[in-house]
Amino acid sequence: xxxxxxxxxxxxxxxxxxxxxxxxxxxxxxxxxxxxxxxxxxxxxxxxxxxxxxxxxxxxxxxxxxxxxxxxxxxxxxxxxxxxxxxxxxxxxxxxxxxxxxxxxxxxxxxxxxxxxxxxxxxxxxxxxxxxxxxxxxxxxxxxxxxxxxxxxxxxxxxxxxxxxxxxxxxxxxxxxxxxxxxxxxxxxxxxxxxxxxxxxxxxxxxxxxxxxxxxxxxxxxxxxxxxxxxxxxxxxxxxxxxxxxxxxxxxxxxxxxxxxxxxxxxxxxxxxxxxxxxxxxxxxxxxxxxxxxxxxxxxxxxxxxxxxxxxxxxxxxxxxxxxxxxxxxxxxxxxxxxxxxxxxxxxxxxxxxxxxxxxxxxxxxxxxxxxxxxxxxxxxxxxxxxxxxxxxxxxxxxxxxxxxxxxxxxxxxxxxxxxxxxxxxxxxxxxxxxxxxxxxxxxxxxxxxxxxxxxxxxxxxxxxxxxxxxxxxxxxxxxxxxxxxxxxxxxxxxxxxxxxxxxxxxxxxxxxxxxxxxxxxxxxxxxxxxxxxxxxxxxxxxxxxxxxxxxxx
Length: 554
Ligand code: GLN
Fold this sequence. Notes:
This protein is of the alpha/beta class.
């Protein structure tokens, strides 16, 4: 195909209606119909990336293979598209301006007066085209963050308008809107969506499709209304009711033949039968009955479950994916780490769980609680999976309670610890001194050589990708940290039974630890949760869930 096609996804009425998932689902469908698809996210805020934002407020910071710290929607794109994206697939207002200013300073505008319009939308369009080219995509989906009518996302909408103006047959727009059903009225209302569509019109944009988010499916009367007032085809109002699992959405969309409608709008024809593998995955998820109970120890729980699930979304999705793939039904328990500091007697409740995850984190709040959880899991042989901070915590616990190194700690919390079993990496020390915090951690993919005979080695051997085989046992996983296992204590820890199961070949950094004679106590310095997709479950999550299911208390 010679011409690139672009689909812009914008939001109307209110935020948090699942615009990202809708955009990602469109990607799943089009890919399944035989097209090379990529997706971009445009975030309107001024931060250059999401790395400096508080996950409690903003949700998880996702990390791409090339080390970009970005919005959690990028994780949804990767999971739904089954593709790895790069930093070119993510932009913020801050990042766009940063490039424009850099170019101006480098005299790349040839003496012109650099203006908000046209130069900022021009930069946005260039980025969209570059990402398209890099991914060799035929269809590019671009989600514009925020809601129409806001001041913040206007320049992104302007870029979209200009791209359409120059390529009228290659660009379409989807408005993801919300249709409330007020309880006292009992009827689905289209008026807010009509306003949102008008608002979009005032930016020079006409939606081609309206995705109708609501509690219920949209009926024919509402379709007609939207068609008349928003100038769309009646069958271009697509029903998007609440669903039990986000992975059902592509299937629901396809029930309305959404994919073929999109392709027709772009003058394309489907090339193959759609969603075959995806449907198998969704069916497995629906039919799973045997429960596997997983506890996730975090420190954000006090603010409620909603925030929790946003802060740890990739971990949660990875558990679901690994469980469903093995015909198991995951049940989650959110465990607040501070609870175990105040009420150590509650530790024994962990016995009711099949497996515990201590995910990534920063800072001191709740750390002693997490260490206590690690100790309990080690002593009671409960499967434990430590991700990044969770690996560091398992190491500290082992040093303190098995090796007898009283006061062992990470330098992040106790710089004066007599036994800094986790210490800052030298280059990070220098960065901290310069107050260079943004995008400066050890980020993205690094190699890890697995040690034969370990649980991790067998997990990757059993569940890893076929493409991995040529270089096995070298694997690549994503990182985001400043502190690291201290090799000075390696011999002592290994002798006492904390195996080194994986190391980075270039720097001999310990990337995986495993407790000997335990069903599954594995800590990884990286973030396997970022590389876990429905059609490609992550190896260690598969092994962890398997070990947990063998413990199953139900
Ligand atoms: N705080 C730890 C570090 O910086 C772990 C980071 C993480 O869990 N992502 O090394």
